[in-house]
Amino acid sequence: MLALAGCFDHLLANGVRLRNRFHKEEMFGKAPRSGNFIQGRGPRFRLALELGRTNSRQNSLLQSNTTEVPLPATAAALTALSEAEAACTRCPLYRNATQVVPGEGAVRAKVMLVGEQPGDQEDLAGHPFVGPAGRVLDRAIADAGLDRKKMFVTNAVKHFKFEPRGKRRLHKKPNAYEIERCHWWIDQERAILKPKMIVALGATAARSLMGRPITISKVRGEALPLPDGTPIVVTIHPSYLLRIDDADRKEFEYRQFVTDLRACASAL
Length: 268
Prior knowledge:
single chain, 12 helices, alpha/beta, 2 domains, Uracil-DNA Glycosylase, subunit E
């Protein structure tokens, strides 16, 4: 969590500095209108500025794991974060993807679901888990007695990695470098939302969040503490269920998946 705080502190400090500078220039008649001031600046600049719009007390709240951030500040920070992600070039995946797919969900989400990466339909739509795996996830969430609208859904890698096959784009698993480079964005989402529980959907998400390769069968369904104390539950990715042909086995694995998701009930 120290590394996370360092990245976020830097953005917050820059945001406060930029906003103070803007107010000073505005006071002396030197500043253009705010829209022009921001126009043409990079997304990291705009993210820092947006995070700096809260006062110093609110900025300290953004770094606290125990105090909720004021709702407008959280919503503004998530919007600024999405804009910054749209211009991300931290790894080469942005070159071939249609667009970035940022996380989305409740501003006051107590549970964060983290998948692997966007699929073909997510890449085209710009929203996470809207394809076949997303429909499986929606059904499992409902069967677990939960509400997706109260959660925040995101991916460990924000751009679609694929291999062209004729007119089709076949999913290709992100490598360790791509996972590590995109981890920075997960850190920012966690810092803004401060979820009470995180669910890692699959090995890629688990690796991103825990910083090392994870064998799902060894830790599945357990609430494990991350370095900052946030509990994480590791389970399968819903796309795994789509690849099972045997009906009985598919039903068994689905029920196990629903059981894993029920662990979120305590956080909600």
